[in-house]
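pls ignore typos typing on phone
5'-O-[(L-methionyl)-sulphamoyl]adenosine + seq
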Amino acid sequence: MAVARMNMNCSIQSSLSCILKPSSFFNFRTTHFRNRLYFPQNNFIAPKRSLLCTCSSNTNAFQTGEKAEPFVITTPLYYVNAPPHMGSAYTTIAADAIARFQRLLGKRVIFITGTDEHGEKIATAASAGGSSPREHCDVISQAYKMLWKDLDIAYDKFIRTTDPKHEAIVEEFYSRVLANDDIYRADYEGLYCVNCEEYKDEKELLENNCCPTHLKPCVPRKEDNYFFALSKYQKSLEEILAQNPDFVQPSYRLNEVQSWIKSGLRDFSISRAAVDWGIPVPNDNKQTIYVWFDALLGYISALLEDKDQPNLQSAVSSGWPASLHLIGKDILRFHAVYWPAMLMSAGLSIPKRVFGHGFLTKDGMKMGKSLGNTIEPNELVHKFGVDAIRYFFLREVEFGNDGDYSEDRFINIVNAHLANTIGNLLNRTLGLLKKNCQSTLVVDSTIAAEGKEFKDTVEKLVEKARIHYENLALSSACEAVLEIGNAGNLYMDKHQPWSLFKQGGDASEAAAKDLVIILETMRIIAIALSPVAPSLCRRIHAQLGYSEDQFDNLNWSETKWGGLKGGQVMAEPKPVFARIEQLKENENGGAEAPKKVVKKKEKKKQVQGVIEA
Ligand code: MSP
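k done
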């Protein structure tokens, strides 16, 4: 028996399937995927699309046009038991950077995020706050949307699992799995972690049956539930992973997934008898569908257009399978094991890639709502501005690994990289151009760089950044762009155009060319760093005399040297990133906060200073 202490107490629910089965199911495959990998026999999946992961490693192609396969990227759908914190913001910032990079490549991107609103812990949080679950969900879901706006998150779809269209998709999906004989009814007794919304294996628990993630004791539960026959998909999953080692990334997480599967997959319960706040099980409204069997479907229902009928056929044809699920490592099992098996059961393609990143930690512990050790993203935005936050977390935490937050480190990094290496370089170059060339470029950047190695250096670094973005090595991508800035600073220091201008004649001409070279470098940085720090890059680009529209329509191919032309007039030099100053203890009159201020600005205006400088 695949499920621990489980007793069959009812005939298999699939006997209901003939009652439930909608006519569209008549074409539907009902065999299992035991020993082979399937190309489903129904016409539900586009004929050439395999169930298998077909991870396309060549994302270098510049695809355009409506017909091109979209790049569909998802964040997890966040639980609305509490407002968002920096941990939830982290996944979304990373997803946004990847989505922006793919758009720069010319891809049609569908960036999906949203909120996971059903289940016991949401209902409990709502009642603790004295509101109905629906009111509670409306408020918290809105808080997510507002934070995404503040963090420059350009998502395409925001799905709420309480959306009736989503509920229709979940019901249809459930019925498909049922029709495939993969749902049965049984008793279950085990230890449950409400925060994970998951039954736990005793051997994975800490002392006093505490959940290793939430450090809270799991509670004994006994329920009569519907189960999903996960164990039937053991062989298929093993084969998928063996044949598609890129399906789970980073590679060290693949080993983890493989060992879970190897240790034997157990069927899991997909309904709850004691939870009202959920989607009723089709044909048994005494039970609601388990939150994960509901929320994962959000990745598909999000694809529905407003005009679409809410059915799987429409949703899937708008872009399934997802190109990339971006998730934290704690929910890898759901995405890399449960979800592909569920999809196979329903005859749908599995996603192309699942990337499990690490945790933001505080004092070594996962930052989270349950442990109450979170950092308030809104506070950080107001204190330091959106670019600093996005840049710091993507640059400082190697994507995939855990990373600890420290305010001192935060300030040091963003000051050194964004204010000094990039902001200062631009500002002093534009200052010199204004003083000596009426803010006008004397020649094309291609001519200015003729015979200079510098151009090759920049081009090599941009290519390095592109490869890192492709591989989701976001920190290394930032590092490569920063190296371009460092190279620019070295060039300035070596050529000293300010003293060449003083010499006049040929020296002055050379100096004017040097400024063109540096500004071309800044133009390239403005494109290459735009996935990570879009507002900052917009300001840099505007300083180079470009319009908002030109920024919005940039393409990665424009990182090629040669964009700036002779005669082009630069904008008035204005700092693009204000340095963050740290007050010494005694400058604050002994008061505890605020300790950090942005130079020469009041606290409220600091934000403006940083964002709009
Ligand atoms: N609702 C589920 C996901 C369903 S997806 C169909 C869920 N929600 S969550 O709000 O608890 O977590 C959402 C994501 O935030 C997870 O990927 C989780 O790893 C991530 N993070 C939560 N705290 C985090 C950190 N401290 N650091 C980094 N990411 C963290 O799970």
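Residues 1-66, 585-613 have pLDDT under 50 and may be disordered. DSSP finds 22 helices and 19 strands in the chain. more later
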